[in-house]
Specification:
Low-confidence stretches of chain B: none
Structural class of chain B: mainly alpha
Number of strands of chain B: 7
Radius of gyration of chain B: 25 Å
Number of domains of chain B: 1
Oligomer: heterodimer
Radius of gyration of chain A: 23 Å
Strand content of chain B: under 5%
Distance between the termini of chain A: 76 Å
Strand order of the largest sheet of chain B: 1-2
Number of helices of chain B: 19
Largest interface: A-B, 102 and 119 residues
Largest sheet of chain A: 3 strands, antiparallel
Structural class of chain A: mainly alpha
Distance between the termini of chain B: 46 Å
Helix content of chain A: 40-55%
Number of helices of chain A: 7
Mean pLDDT of chain A: 91
Number of domains of chain A: 2
Helix content of chain B: 55-70%
Number of strands of chain A: 6
Largest sheet of chain B: 2 strands, antiparallel
Chain lengths: 197, 600
């Protein structure tokens, strides 16, 4: 009895491995590469023959003339898309508040006039460490700094933020947000500017 | 704000319930074998049909198959360096991690002591992760089916391999395909390439290596099979696994779908749909409870790490050396940080899903023992983190594929037994008398869970194994250990990821110091907590089913009314609280109450 079961178990293992490990992934790959080729290869944005990055993967920004992304805890450097990760810090872990304090210091150092309270997504790290978005409030908070650094009017910057804002799906799912990479790329495409560092 | 917070969880509950009712009929129809399929499919089916099996033969076949699955998974991981689809020549995982991972995926736990994006090649992702996800989920499903047939008094409870075929081929593969198309459309990659290299916008000299792979094949069954093992380290929080708020909706729904349907399938196959609906309502109440709890304390409250404490607090602590036996300790006032927290606790959350999505997902993923995460559970507000822990401790709020309903049956049997004792009547379930043997088997299956959580947690908390692995100070460190063993024992797979359990590849020069004991202990916990609660209930169902069915009488406790529902709810809550309140108090509750000095 046991031998019969073992024999069938071996047949089953082989059969199911072929089905779920070969046929199913190949079929879904075919489907993906035919109907969603851009998505299937990582949503890479190409501008003027240069690959800018992936629309879905965030990048780090530190210059005052760019909008900054959220904090990232990927190791060994931020926004390492080969090693996603979070801080794993509990709310009462002192290093969580320390990280936030340092971030607040950095934000205020490049924008010492702006003393309004900082939207919390700018001082916290995302779960994946690769979050491409910030909240609209976080973008508007940074707008005066970017405008000054680039010599573009604040109104123009705010218009850009509004244009790059992605709304909630069906008006209800998700959060209003701005893709930082796309917004910064749009900034770079703006004419007549003095790019600040 | 109100609507944005609460729409997502309640839409999920409603939509999944609406889909589950009609589709559970399909599940029952397939498992009863009433379908006809094209000849090439029935040819395979005949090859797998090793004849009708009684409960012992069925269980033996199940165990043999799982052993084989373990061996195969182990082999694939060991051979990783020499297999194709490994362009950067990843070495093999550490041996203890291979042991842990092979058990983890074979038992449908998917607790990961490695990080997919760093440590696995696409070959391992497909032949280890993907096949295990289909098969381990189907095993639990089959176990439930065998129990149903045994309850019906059938001597032969079906054929395990045919059941596996039905579940995998007629349910999981087509369902994964459908969900996969939605994920693809939303932006999940699907390629056999491993990376894309780009230079970043701000400093073109800096390269960003973007890991891609066959994600859209893994993602659907990861959710549908309540597996939860991410392709990437950060699981469903990673933008490639879960790119939009809409994909997040389907992601969450996919993991709820089969657990919801299986409860109803149980009722349909036994011809007791009303009874199943009562159980369903109890489960959905518990699930709504855990969701509301985590949203209320995590989304609608700020992260206490940033708010500070406006007033200084003083405590009197007993102290032998101080005069009067008491010493006064002052915790000074702390200034809050200048941040606007009206969106709730955003540490370890992604912007695109919406503010309540992380808390919702955290509760659902443990209730259905999926274990995928779309936020970092370590960074949940302390008291909100009770919600995922409770989900794992109860382990019957819909629960994993098949086994959740099996766990619920244990509570049903024990609840009826206790109620029968209290009113002085013979306890009966499905018209059959519950005897001492059935209760013993049910208790065995039920108690293995707390033993496997509390025992190892105590051991690790008392030794360097635990204390050197925790990454957060104070009670949160203890919570990390509790969470790890709860997750292992519930076959869940989510984690407080800060815990140092990752050895990495076998040639890693600086692994986490205590990774090996964690690998072995968690591996063994998963093994016992998976198979005892499958084997013992099958035996219980077989013994019960073999008894003579008594006619329904005036003295019979009805199992399809509100009284029964309340009895069941009470049994679950009382047993759960008795078993787990003490460690809840030592971990998350102590953390929530803040730094209270204990004696000194």
């Amino acid at each position: 009895m046991v031998w019969k079961s073992l024999r069938t178990a071996v047949i089953a293992t082989v059969l199911f491995t072929v089905l779920t490990g070969v046929i199913y992934p190949l079929a879904i790959t075919g489907l993906a590469q035919v109907f969603f080729p851009w998505r299937a290869n990582g949503s890479l944005i190409h501008v003027n023959g240069k690959t800018l990055g992936s629309e879905l993967i965030g990048q780090p920004f530190t210059a005052p003339g760019y909008f900054w992304s959220r904090q990232s805890a990927t190791s060994p450097f931020p926004y390492n898309a080969a090693s996603s990760g979070a801080t794993n810090e509990g709310p009462l872990n002192p290093s969580l508040a320390d990280g936030a304090r340092k971030r607040i210091h950095d934000l205020r150092e490049v924008d010492s006039l702006n003393l309004s309270s900082i939207p919390v997504d700018l001082v916290t790290a995302s779960a994946s460490g690769l979050d491409p978005h910030i909240s609209v409030a976080a973008a508007l908070y940074q707008a005066p700094r970017v405008a000054r650094a680039r010599g573009i009017s604040l109104q123009k910057i705010n218009e850009l933020v509004a244009r790059e804002t992605e709304g909630r799906t069906f008006g209800i799912l998700g959060e209003n947000r701005v893709n930082v990479l796309l917004l910064n790329a749009a900034l770079d495409a703006e004419p007549s500017q003095s790019k600040g560092n | 704000m109100f609507l944005n917070t609460w729409f997502l969880p309640f839409a999920l509950l409603a939509v999944t319930t609406l889909i589950a009712f009609p589709l559970s009929r399909y599940l029952a129809w397939i498992m009863e074998g009433k379908y006809r399929v094209p000849r090439f499919l029935s040819w395979f089916e005949k090859k797998l049909d090793s004849g009708p099996q009684n409960w012992k033969q069925y269980t033996a076949a199940l165990l043999i198959f799982c052993t084989l699955l373990f061996a195969f998974g182990f082999l694939v991981l060991v051979l990783q360096p020499w297999m194709p689809l490994n362009p950067d020549g990843k070495w093999m995982l550490a041996p203890s991690t291979i042991f842990h991972s092979a058990i983890s995926f074979m038992t449908n736990t998917n607790l990961q002591h490695y990080s997919g994006d760093q440590h696995l090649s696409n070959f391992s992702q497909i032949f280890f992760i993907l096949s295990n996800m289909f098969l381990s989920a189907a095993v639990g499903f089959c176990a439930l089916t065998a129990i149903i047939r045994a309850f019906r008094g059938e001597k032969f409870v079906g054929n395990f391999f045919v059941d596996m075929w039905r579940v995998v081929v007629y349910m999981f593969v087509p369902a994964s395909f459908l969900i996969g198309i939605i994920f693809l459309q939303q932006g999940v990659p699907m390629t056999f390439e491993s990376f894309a290299h780009v230079s970043t916008l701000e400093s073109p000299a800096t390269q960003q290596t973007i890991v891609v792979g066959p994600v859209a094949a893994v993602e659907p069954i990861k959710m549908l099979g309540t597996n939860g093992g991410g392709f990437f380290g950060m699981n469903s929080a990673h933008p490639f696994e879960n790119p939009t708020a809409l994909s997040n909706f389907f992601n969450t729904m996919a993991m709820m779908l089969f657990p919801f349907m299986l409860v109803l399938m149980y009722g349909r196959m036994l011809g007791r749909l009303r009874h199943a609906v009562v159980v369903f309502i109890v489960m959905i109440l518990l699930m709504a409870g855990t969701i509301v709890w985590s949203i209320y304390f995590d989304t609608l409250k700020p992260n206490p790490g940033f708010t500070g404490d406006p007033v200084a607090r003083t405590y009197d602590v007993p102290s032998a050396s101080a005069p009067g036996g008491k010493r006064t300790v002052t915790v000074p006032a702390v200034a809050g940080l200048p941040v606007d927290q009206h969106l709730g606790n955003l540490e370890g959350k992604e912007m695109r899903f919406g503010t309540s999505a992380g808390a919702t997902y955290a509760a659902v993923t443990v209730d259905v023992t999926c274990g995928a995460v779309n936020s970092e559970h370590d960074s949940l507000n302390p008291i909100a983190a009770i919600s995922p822990m409770v989900g794992m401790w109860l382990n019957c709020v819909f629960g994993g594929k098949g086994v959740g309903m099996i766990n619920m049956l244990l509570y049903v049997i024990i609840g009826i037994f206790v109620a029968g004792m209290m009113v002085g009547r013979t306890p009966e379930y499905l018209g059959r008398k519950i005897g001492a043997r059935e209760v013993k088997l049910a208790l065995l299956a039920l108690l293995i869970h707390p033993i496997m959580i509390l025992g190892p947690t105590g051991l690790f908390a008392a030794t360097d194994w635990g204390m050197k692995a925790v990454s957060n100070p104070g009670p949160h460190g203890f919570s990390q250990m509790v969470y790890q063993f709860s997750s292992a024992s519930a076959n869940n797979g989510s984690a407080f990821d800060g815990l140092g359990v990752t050895y990495g590849l076998a040639n890693n020069p600086s692994p986490a110091p205590e990774a090996i004991p964690w690998d072995i202990a968690a591996g063994l916990v998963m093994l016992f907590s998976r198979f005892l609660p499958i084997v013992a209930p099958i035996a219980m169902a077989a013994y019960l089913g073999a008894k003579k069915s008594a006619p329904f009488g005036l003295g019979t406790l009805r199992d399809d009314g509100a009284t029964f529902g309340l009895l069941l709810l009470g049994t679950i809550l009382i047993i759960g609280a008795l078993l787990f309140l003490p460690i809840a108090a030592l971990g998350p509750l102590a953390e929530h109450l803040g730094p209270i000095p204990f004696g000194g």
